[in-house]
Structure formats: C-alpha cells, structure tokens
Fold Maleylacetoacetate isomerase.
Amino acid sequence: MTIQLYGFWRSNAAFRVRVALALKQLPFEEIEVDILSGRQFDAAYAQVNTEHVVPTLVDHGHRIFQSMAIMEYLDETYPEPRLLPLDAKDRAYARALAFVSIADAHPLTVPRVRKHLAQAFDADSAAIEAWCRHWVREGLATYERLLTQRPAAPFALGDVPTVADIGIAGQIALAHVYDMDLVAYPLVAALGKQCFKLPEFAQAHPFEQPGYQRVGI
C-alpha cells in the first residue's frame, strides 16, 4: 500500500515530511489540502485530521499527524537511513535543533495565526507579513548562534542529514517564501547550501511543488 501524505506546497511542515520520506526512499502519494483557501476545515478532511492542519501521513491505514511525530514514526518503522542519531546526547541535540523551527518559529507564521492577527487586531497584509518576517528572522538568528557553537561538518551533526538539518532547511524555505536573504546568517546559508544540493531537499522545496504559485501572505 502506497504511503499517502496530505500536504500543500505552502506548508512548511509538509516540506519537512517530504524530505524525510525522500531521504528514506519511500514512495508516497501527496494529496493536496489547500490551507490558503481553508480546505483543511472541510468535513471530509476533518475525518482524516481533526486538528484541521497538514501534514497527515497515512501508512497501512494508520494516520499520523505533526511533522516531528511523523519523522520519528518513519525512523522507527523504516530505520535506514536514520534521521535521529543513535547516541542519546546527539539525538537530543538533533531534536532541539529541529524544534527551533518546528515548535518556536514556524508556528507563529501559520494560517490560523495570520487570520487571528487580522480578525483580532485589524492587522493588514503588510503588518502580518512584517510579523511573519520577524519570526523567520528570529529562527534564523537562533540557528546562526547554535551553529557558531557547534559548526556543521558538513551537516549539523556530521556526515549525514538528520531531523536537525530538515528543521534548519525548513526555516530557510520559509525565508524563501518571504523573499528574505540569508546574508546575516552565513553559517545557516552554508548549511542550507549543503542540504539543497541533495535532490531529497531540493525537490521537496515549496517552489518545486505542483501547486506552487506566488501569492501574498
């Protein structure tokens, strides 16, 4: 049975899962859920994911949501190549790096947050975009500080990419969505260059997805 991934080109979380699936060479069918037009709230999708978010992974009838949970499931179910190191200290560090984007920066830019800013605070599109850019910068700056303390060689934890690199690459993809450069973050940019040299990262990029189109916030 083919793995199914409910996702969308603009979903940074779906980007992370696409990379993980590609690194593990797992074929999958992606089913589009247009989160910009609110299709995540359709009754049919509510039967798949009651949180009304993407991505959702369906594997042998089992539904898993939240990108880190999906990546850990994939690592436990399809263990090679590993996305999480075997060493406990390295595994914790890889998770911590991933969560800078997954838990701290990216959630502040998602559609429901942007919608709330508009409805509760009368924020216009320019203000909402400024808000999103701020949190993208905060994530990039955090990664730059962390990579200063422990430089990538060539990836965050050594010779092969892990969830840490997927998280950092996702933050870079967010910067691309908002037309932001990485001049102020040379270590992040260098790591991103290593990641996006790999087809698994490059082909998962939001701009490479079938539904991609230049839109506003």
In short: The mean pLDDT is 96. Strands lie at 3-7, 28-32, 56-59, 62-65. The domain at 88-202 is CATH 1.20.1050.10 (Glutathione S-transferase Yfyf (Class Pi); Chain A, domain 2). The two ends are 36 Å apart (CA to CA).
